[in-house]
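Dear Dr. H.,

I hope your travels went smoothly. While you were away I took the liberty of generating a structure for the chain from your last submission, since the lab meeting agenda had it listed for discussion. I wanted you to have the full record in hand beforehand rather than looking at slides cold. The sequence, exactly as received, is reproduced here:
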Amino acid sequence: MPFIAMIAALPGLAFLLGAGLMAAGFLAAIAGFFMAMMNTQQKFEQSSLVFVLGIVALVVGAWLMRLAP
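The corresponding predicted structure, in token form, is as follows:
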């Protein structure tokens, strides 16, 4: 995979990208959780999607940080 080779060549970029994704994922997961709890104008499906995308961003960010040597 060319993406993995590029990340392996730039370890600092992989770490920063992973840390940024983890931070964004954490905020999205918290936002999705509170959107579902407050039951505001947003639909439940939208808040669930935000929560799940936050968890996915957390996992991908952790994977990128682990990939950096």
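Two observations you may find useful: The two ends are 18 Å apart (CA to CA). The mean pLDDT is 83.

With kind regards,
E. W.
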